[in-house]
Write a structure and sequence with these properties.
Blueprint: E1 8-12, H1 17-27, E2 31-36, H2 55-61, E3 65-68, H3 74-86, E4 89-92, H4 98-101, H5 106-112, E5 117-122, H6 137-143, E6 151-152, E7 155-156, H7 163-186, E8 191-195, H8 196-203, H9 205-213, E9 231-235, E10 241-245, H10 249-259, H11 263-267, H12 274-279, H13 281-292, H14 297-306, E11 310-313, H15 317-321, E12 328-332, E13 338-342, E14 357-358, H16 366-372
Parallel strand pairs: 1-2, 1-4, 2-3, 4-5, 5-8, 12-14
Antiparallel strand pairs: 6-7, 9-10, 10-11, 12-13
């Protein structure tokens, strides 16, 4: 048994944020009917890396049913109303106001189905003055200041994955579950709304506090932490970079004593507190560089491990694919190709892993769903 077995989710979705939310609901046992245009979710065409299917689409849509609808047409609009009337959850991430103009606004459909939980995902909320702004992930990274605090000192950098989309999807998933819990207590559904910008802005709280209440937002620092030192990438004599992290003064003392073999560094007035080390980062890095110029990565990491100092390799995606901690899940993508993806991050004790779930073709389930929800 899964937590959401027996629940029906209708999702008018595209791209990443809403599909990720409903993918999590499907993983938990919900039946997810994905409403698509005749040409399909445009994420289907992002690439062909997943056995001919899009990597984005395969990741976010396996285990769902695909129903092609044009709800501007009366017959299809009536079908969507019937679906929503029997649903537990409605998720949508169309342009602000689009669902309402089509007759499917959240408050209206909840009035028709008081049991319903609705989740509206947008780029910047519903404020009319922002309605013209497109809300693709990179754009929201830029608007929220996330790019400005990312990258190296010489150039800002995009986060290498669709972080704002993913964050909005995971936040929406949590909000839907909270609304379902509230329904259990109140007996009524409710509406929740999430914007990509709100998620990114909330995640920017630390730089925001520094900017608004402190002495200015931290500067971009590449592979170094802007407010902790040493915490970043350090290169040994063989050209290999290792990330190390010092979180307190006890660890700093051990690092100097047992790894650098330089106990004098711990008491240096420039380095005897985190604030001093951040202030004097250039001198600190220069001294660390002198030590690491005498070590290779294996020697350095062995010392770090023996001293119980946190460290990591600066891995690439090929390293991730071979990582001993990586778990897999099997899906069936375009043309019946079997694919191994990184596993769902939540592990339930005692819950049996299901077989591979399939990525739906455009409208694959349309005929069956139309028959099941036909107007009597």
């Amino acid at each position: 048994m899964k937590p959401l077995d027996g629940m029906l989710v209708i999702s008018v979705e595209q791209a990443v944020a809403a599909p990720l939310c409903t993918a999590r609901l499907a993983d938990a046992g919900a039946r997810v009917i994905k409403i698509e245009r005749a040409e399909g979710d445009f994420a289907r065409k992002y690439d062909q890396a997943a056995g001919g299917a899009s990597s984005y689409f395969a990741w976010l849509n396996h285990g769902k049913q695909s129903l092609v609808l044009d709800f501007k047409q009366d017959e299809d609009a009536a079908l969507l109303h019937r679906l929503i009337g029997q649903a537990d959850v409605l998720v949508q991430n169309l342009a602000p106001g689009a669902m309402q103009r089509a007759g499917f606004g959240s408050s209206e459909v909840r009035a028709q189905n008081p049991n319903l939980v609705t989740c509206d995902i947008s780029g910047y909320g519903e404020a009319p003055e922002l309605a013209h702004l497109k809300a693709y992930d990179l754009l929201v990274q830029a608007e929220s200041g996330l790019i400005e605090v990312s990258g190296g000192p010489g150039e800002p950098g995009r986060i290498g994955i669709s972080l704002c989309d993913i964050g909005a999807g995971i936040t929406a998933h949590a909000a839907v579950l909270e609304a379902l819990l509230l329904r259990e207590r109140s007996g009524e559904g409710s509406g929740v709304a999430i914007s990509l910008f709100d998620v990114a802005a909330e995640w920017m709280s630390v730089p925001f506090v520094h900017q608004v209440h402190g002495e200015g937002a931290p500067k971009r620092s590449g592979l170094h932490h802007p407010s902790i030192a040493p915490y970043g990438a350090y290169e040994t004599d063989d050209g290999v970079k290792t990330i190390l992290s010092i979180q307190n003064e006890r660890e700093w003392q051990r690092l100097c004593d047992d790894v650098f073999l330089r106990p004098d560094m711990a008491g240096d007035p420039r380095f005897n507190s985190n604030n001093q080390r951040v202030k004097n980062r250039a001198a600190l890095d220069e001294d660390i560089g002198k030590v690491l110029g005498l070590l290779n990565a294996t020697e350095f990491r062995e010392r770090l491990g023996a001293a119980k100092i946190a460290y990591a390799g600066l891995n690439n995606v090929a390293d991730l694919a071979a990582h001993p901690a990586l778990r897999h899940r099997e899906i069936v993508a375009g043309g019946g190709a079997g694919l191994a993806l990184p596993a769902h991050p939540v592990r339930w004790a005692g819950l049996r892993v299901q077989g591979a779930s399939a990525v739906p073709e455009i409208g694959e389930h349309s005929a069956a769903i139309r028959a099941e929800f036909a107007d009597d």
